[in-house]
Amino acid sequence: MNKVSMTVNGRTVSADVEGRTLLSSLLRDDLHLTGTHVGCDTSQCGACVVHVDGKAVKACTMLAAEADGADVKTIEGMANADGSLGVIQQAFRDYHGLQCGFCTPGMVMSAAALLEENPKPSEAEVRDYLEGNICRCTGYHNIVKAILAASGQQVEAVAAE
Amino acid sequence: MPKDGGIGASTKRREDLRFLTGRGKYTDDINLQNQTYAHFVRSDVAHGTINSINASAAEAMPGVARVFTAKDFEGVGGVPCGWQVTDRHGQPMQEPKHPVLAEGKVRHVGDPIAVVVADTLEQAQDAAEKLEIDITELPAVIDMKDALQDGATKVHDDLTSNLCYDWGFVEENRDAVDEAIKGAHHVTTLELKNNRLVANPMEPRVAVGDYDFSTDEHTLYTTSQNPHVIRLLMGAFVLGIPEHKLRVVAPDVGGGFGAKIYHYAEEAFCTFAAKAIGRPVKWTSSRSEAFMSDAHGRDHVTKIELAMDENGKFLALRTDTHANMGAYLSTFAPSIPTWLHGTLMAGNYTTPLIYVNVKAVFTNTVPVDAYRGAGRPEATFQLERVVDKAAREMGIDPVELRRRNFITEFPYATPVAVEYDTGDYHATMDKLLEMSDHAGFEARAAESKANGKLRGFGIAHYIEACGIAPSNLVGQLGARAGLYESATVRVNATGSISVMTGSHSHGQGHETSFAQVVSEMIGIDANQIDIVHGDTSKTPMGMGTYGSRSIAVGGSAMVRATEKIINKAKKIASHLLEASEGDIEFKNGEFTVAGTDKSVAWGDVTLAAYVPHNYPLEEMEPGLEETAFYDPANFTYPSGAYGCEVEVDPETGKVTVLGFSAADDFGNIINPMIVEGQVHGGLAQGIGQAMIENCAYDDQGQLLSGSYMDYAMPRADDLPMFKVDHSSITPCTHNPLGVKGCGEAGAIGSPPALVNAVVDALQRAGHDVTHIDMPLSPDRVWAAMNS
Ligand code: FES
Ligand code: FES
Known about the structure:
By secondary structure, chain A is of the alpha+beta class. Chain A has helices at residues 23-30, 87-94, 104-117, 123-129, 141-150, and strands at 2-8, 11-17, 49-52, 55-58, 71-73. By secondary structure, chain B is α+β, with helices and mostly antiparallel strands.
């Protein structure tokens, strides 16, 4: 068992973990932050995406020990300080970018990282960036719209309806 | 304009607030005190005899509570099948036992042999390494036609062969169909496969079993689309637990698509083991485990023949299908290639004579059952492919050939036992041609050609039977359960409402759309109405969500219960207003005496029901709570026209989907935003099937596509923006909302439209290609072009 400590959503936390403990397990099982989901065992679905030191990371692929000292942000830290939905979250709701909600935390975290890097992405850039996030429910149509809307762009122009 | 929050409004979903903030409560988020973890040890061979299992070393490992094998389940029933099909000769299907843990033999890769239960998952996994399991591998049967050869290895030694049933429908029409085909002007024949798929809801299955010794009550938390059905099947047939001692909870569920309908061995295991060891037992499927333990979908091999007269009028249709059941019969498996497939073979057309033959076959593969559409995509695919091929052979435009054969008068009794209540197929076709700018296609095709690409347009029409289903009918067809739905509407003293429904939401947004219906009926704000689902201890008996049945059947039950509420509330209001009941009008949450300004508000009436100081106690009980069970009189028949435009790169065979349009008739719509989302998701799954998804076995029965490394899931950059329309509305005539259901349409209509488009692109370029099996990978397309 190793002691790790880090900041998660602005709070300092520490826990004893085995060497093999994944960041996703630390978040879900030890910190009870169950918004981070696990949808695969081959690092491909993106349901587990969180931010570590500002970068989008698949929490199922990172050891908890590797995040020692890091600044971690999860879906639970994405709302505004007053508890209202953040811009990306609100856009997902407004454009019906989620159905069962299982991929949603990872989608929102990836979308936030994308917009940080590229504040006005094109539709193709959004689709390309989401390569590592699988959604089985929405067909991505409304996720793409939501992300474009969150970036402040007109969505009706790209949405073929 | 629909009223905000009422029927027809694109009300934003209330469930989004918890899902977007990480506060959803999925089964894996549930952890009980003193919980243990189950690790399933599964067969890595497709077929074998279990000679011995020695668990002593494993049981001695740290943290291990117990190791379970088949001998712990002696006296426990097998996992039951919920539908019995009768074959062409009047005999029941062959139905093998499906043990919770493998008894003596393993029959597919992934068949569970033993389970280690320990304090932590890691301990259970470590201990599993110490299990000594001696298996003699046997030859496996994977291909369905091989499985039916004389002398083929049998999947089940106690059955006479690998044939589950040989079904004929309508058997009396067999000879007449043969005759009509023999004498026809032209017969178009097509052989095709409907590829095996894995549903892959993003949330893997999870089960948590708990047992309370003080009350003798079992609780199972599970990722299910129908908790009551699990309670019924597991309680009555597997573990022998009466319903009042068994609670099944399906909380937030991360997608289902069929795969979470069935009762699975892992659920029975966790429920059983929790009592056996006296601690809660949790199992969470890994994705790799899901590939070999979730029921798969499709996997049909079909030959279809369509006979026509010289004008292209359809005279007769004959289809011959082999349907893979896998190694055991999953809950609804036998009904999928029969009653959910054969009954849809008329499609949108007036074909007078139809004969469907289906041979269901056991193989050493994972059980196959319903996957989004369930039987109807298989019916639509073969029909819409053969119609397209027929159009080319007859030299008639594919749109025109369809139009010549459309059913235009309703109700319409098909020769395959169903009666369509309403529809307007020309209307959806017109809409599709408009939305997809069909008129501009030639110009776009010329542009592609100038760029060295081949452009094609494909069309498909579909009909589906949803709103499953009239109980007396399905009972005659072999269903072992009724298929009604129930709802309880509980009005609280201050006027707020809890609706307990047997429908289950796992992405469909019932908490929002069901509330819209009640809000419209009562005239109070939707925020005053809560939809409760997914817990057998909270809701009346329910049959759950599948087959696009929630709003048509569950919604109708809720409407009936709400009508009872309104009737009773009117009686109370008439007492309070000292008027006769017939004079009471109810609108926008207010009761008025017709022609006067006397009125009483909803909240005053509800309060009077619970504080009955001024109440007609001699005539009525206090309280305001009603339950209704709704059993549909018929299926509903959503239909639509789908169009797909593709570009093929002749150098590589790569297909790009440039556009996809869907014009649907879902009857009345409660929440257009949600309906559109359902269609988008269905389209993605149908395009996935046609383009990239494929569940493959090698001839030894090893699963070649057992993870996201080798099973291609559609990603954002595989799909275009969609055009969807649901403005063609012919309301259902036999349910109170006039709704038809929309959940599966996208997955049903899209694969044939896409394959038709690719064949069109190749034919336009002069390639004599009449069919390519799905998925249309570049190598298959390239090979078809260059053969
Ligand atoms: S759970 Fe991390 S990528 Fe799938
Ligand atoms: S919303 Fe269900 S997987 Fe994306």
